[in-house]
TrEMBL record:
Taxonomic lineage of the native organism: Bacteria, Bacillati, Actinomycetota, Actinomycetes, Micromonosporales
Organism domain of life: Bacteria
Species for this entry: Rhizocola hellebori
Name of the protein this chain belongs to: Branched-chain amino acid ABC transporter permease
Annotated compartments: Cell membrane
Annotated ABC transporter domain residues: 8-255
Coiled-coil regions, chain positions: none
Length: 255
């Protein structure tokens, strides 16, 4: 179903940890209905940027807007309610919870799955659950996890837990979806499934931001690529432009 995506814009964003300038005057935009990949060497500031956008960290200076509205000082709960969802590199899933329950819990926990068991045990959760079952089933079909719906989530292989992270984010029907290394640890088939799911989310109108090490996947999937290096934007362009960029080759690919 169509999603009304929102333009994500970051302007002159800076963040330091002690004396370590993780981001310096970073400006970029991610458009609705487009996949924007964020790449760069380890320590270049990609995760910090995601954490600022979803309100886990506070910026030192600069702007962050979604569909024109500032979220730079909003709480992570508020940002989640505004339709910005993210996945985590290392999904935390408590034992004793099925794949379907994890997806449904995505409705209620924007945060890392830490609150998940508490949420699942609450009377509120049981009441609303029926309403969400159908939506969860759709998302489990889309992500190829439907045959595992009643399996214990924590027992899944890593690749499927990563896909489950994506599914958990999708149940919120996000305007902006931030994917943190969603493909790492996935085998070729799983990467293909992930790529197809991400394309469908994009085509539904969502603003997709992809932080990803797999350069081939980025080239195949991204509409725009932003390259970070040492906390700044090194280059920005289409996959073809980035692939041909000599500075990117030197900095990022090391060739
Ligand atoms: P990337 O995701 O591109 O690998 P990060 O955003 O994780 O880069 O890190 C950018 C810089 O910020 C690094 O020097 C890292 O050590 C530092 N950094 C990130 N998060 C924290 C934190 N919570 N506390 C202190 N330093 C941090």
């Amino acid at each position: 179903r169509p999603i009304s995506g929102g333009m994500l814009e970051v302007g002159k964003l800076s963040k330091a940890f002690g004396g370590n300038q993780a981001l310096r005057d970073v400006s970029l935009r991610a458009e609705p209905g487009k996949i924007t990949a964020l790449i760069g060497p380890n320590g270049s500031g990609k995760t910090t940027l995601l954490n600022l956008v979803c309100g886990f960290y506070r910026r030192d200076s600069g702007s962050i807007t979604v569909a024109g509205a500032s979220i730079a000082t909003a709480s992570s709960d508020r940002i989640a309610r505004l339709g910005i969802a993210r996945t985590f590199q290392t999904p935390l899933i408590p034992p004793g919870i099925t794949v379907r329950e994890v997806v449904i819990s995505g409705r209620y926990t924007a945060d890392r799955a830490g609150f998940l068991s508490a949420v699942l045990r609450s009377p509120h959760f049981r009441r609303v659950r029926e309403r969400d079952l159908q939506r969860a089933t759709e998302i489990l079909r889309l992500t190829g996890l439907i045959h595992l719906a009643d399996s214990e989530a924590v027992a899944l292989p890593l690749g499927m837990r990563r896909m489950l992270e994506v599914a958990r984010a999708l149940i919120r029907e996000p305007k902006v979806l931030l994917l943190d290394e969603a493909a790492s640890g996935l085998d070729e088939n799983e990467v293909r499934t992930l790529a197809s799911v991400v394309r469908q989310i994009r085509d539904a109108g969502c603003t997709v931001v992809l932080v990803e090490h797999n350069f081939d996947l980025v080239l195949a999937l991204a509409d725009r690529i932003v390259v970070l290096a040492r906390g700044g934007v090194l280059a920005e362009g289409t996959p073809a432009e980035i692939e041909a960029n000599v500075r990117v080759r030197d900095e990022y690919l090391g060739v």
